[in-house]
């Protein structure tokens, strides 16, 4: 590309010092930078950058060193999602950690389950619509405790070893 570090930094929307760190290997570029690099790359460079992007997204979204198996369209959506996570992180670092844990669980779910029960989708929709309500948050916690106890009992585990709750099935419907 025959650019100076400053010129290249402008091209990818970064600072010159960041480009220097990328070149030296002291810092790895994030997914948004890798996405820009992919689109700027020559044909013979694209495959390596795509692989780096897939590993970066895997690490960012799951917290593990995994390769995301995705199409370019899916990668674009993930990069956009990663950008939204960065925006959330700049506002509230704790939210990013919670979202990363959620994404990790969803990733595992998608890898291990053949189907998703509609009740799980309904629970996620209910959370989206009511998560700001403290009473609704309490109901979700009670439901999780109730399920945890019931599943431990179904698995033959000692119910005293699990978290106790005074939630009853009827409480969850109120």
Give a structural overview:
The protein folds into 2 domains: 1-114, no CATH class; 117-174, no CATH class. The chain is mainly α and 174 residues long. The protein is elongated, with a radius of gyration of 22 Å. It has 9 helices and no strands. Helix 1 crosses helix 2 (16-24), helix 4 packs across helix 5 (72-91) and helix 5 runs antiparallel to helix 6 (93-112). Residues 161-165 and 167-174 have low confidence and may be disordered.
Q: What is the succession of H and E elements?
A: HHHHHHHHH
The domain tally reads: 2
Average of per-residue pLDDT values: 79
Structural class: mainly alpha
- Please give the largest β-sheet: none
Shape: elongated
Give the distance, in angstroms, between the N- and C-terminal Cα atoms: 63 Å
- The DSSP helix count reads 9
Strand content: under 5%
The tally of beta strands, per DSSP, is: 0
Share of residues in helices: over 70%
| Low-confidence parts | 161-165, 167-174
Rg, Å, rounded: 22 Å
Question: What's this entry about, in short?
Answer:
This protein is mostly helical. The chain is built from 9 helices and no strands.
Give the helices and strands, then pairings:
Layout lengths: L4 H8 L3 H9 L6 H10 L2 H20 L9 H20 L1 H20 L5 H13 L3 H21 L14 H5 L1
Features:
single chain, 174 residues, mainly alpha, 2 domains, 0% strand, elongated
């Amino acid at each position: 590309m025959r650019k100076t570090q400053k010129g290249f930094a402008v091209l990818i929307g970064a600072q010159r010092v960041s480009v220097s760190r990328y070149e030296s290997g002291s810092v790895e570029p994030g997914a948004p930078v890798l996405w820009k690099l992919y689109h700027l790359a020559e044909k013979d460079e694209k495959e390596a950058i795509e692989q780096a992007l897939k590993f970066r997204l895997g690490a960012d979204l799951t917290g593990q060193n995994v390769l995301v198996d995705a199409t370019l369209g899916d990668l674009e959506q993930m990069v956009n999602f990663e950008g939204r996570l960065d925006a959330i992180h700049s506002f509230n670092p704790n939210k990013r950690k919670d979202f990363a844990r959620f994404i990790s669980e969803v990733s595992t779910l998608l890898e291990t389950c053949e189907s998703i029960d509609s009740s799980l989708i309904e629970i996620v929709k209910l959370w989206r619509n009511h998560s700001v309500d403290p009473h609704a948050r309490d109901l979700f916690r009670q439901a999780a405790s109730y399920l945890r106890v019931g599943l431990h009992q179904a698995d033959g585990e000692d119910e005293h070893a699990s978290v106790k709750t005074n939630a009853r099935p009827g409480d969850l419907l109120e």
